[in-house]
Amino acid sequence: KNQVEQSPQSLIILEGKNCTLQCNYTVSPFSNLRWYKQDTGRGPVSLTIMTFSENTKSNGRYTATLDADTKQSSLHITASQLSDSASYICVVPLGGSQGNLIFGKGTKLSVKP
Amino acid sequence: EAQVTQNPRYLITVTGKKLTVTCSQNMNHEYMSWYRQDPGLGLRQIYYSMNVEVTDKGDVPEGYKVSRKEKRNFPLILESPSPNQTSLYFCASSSGTGVQPQHFGDGTRLSIL
Questions:
Q1: Which residues of A touch B (CB under 8 A)?
Q2: C-alpha angle with apex A49: A43 to A55, nearest 5 degrees?
Q3: pLDDT in tens, B38-68
């Protein structure tokens, strides 16, 4: 079954600390994996897209890694800020195209002062 | 400003009363999609459209209709709404070429009584 699973479900960290969010997928064939940030009450915003040939990709304090062999991705947040408090969603297109997308349930991150 | 606009943002209605949620994008994107988001279930795709007059079912299409008569608009139609369609709905669009991020609207919160 094509699935995208994220862990942990929720996470609380102190401002300034680093954290890593995990995404495991069983979608096949695979072409790319996306990470989105969703603030409460808003639509998701794209952080990064990784194709099967990319291992690491950074967007400011966000760094995503991809291991296509083990079908795992992680999102590392460095020096967290209060504004990082949000849900982070991992998404993988089904069938390699961008038409039908499989979403993980997200990790809810709370950054405390 | 590049954006995806959904209307209405909030709607409370009653079972069986037909409603339409509009979605419009000003980025000349080929791809558009509708999602619903429910607590504990994450985002689930309802319908998507790869281009004008081309629509496909996502994971949860039952009870919904869509049309794509022109590139910028992708309305979501609930012919006979039921309480289990109470949810937060998002419309998104992206360029159809290559691997591109989706741009999401700010959401429509529907309550069906």
A1: 31-32, 34, 41-46, 49, 51, 89, 98-101, 103-106
A2: 145
A3: 998 889 999 999 999 999 999 899 999 999 9
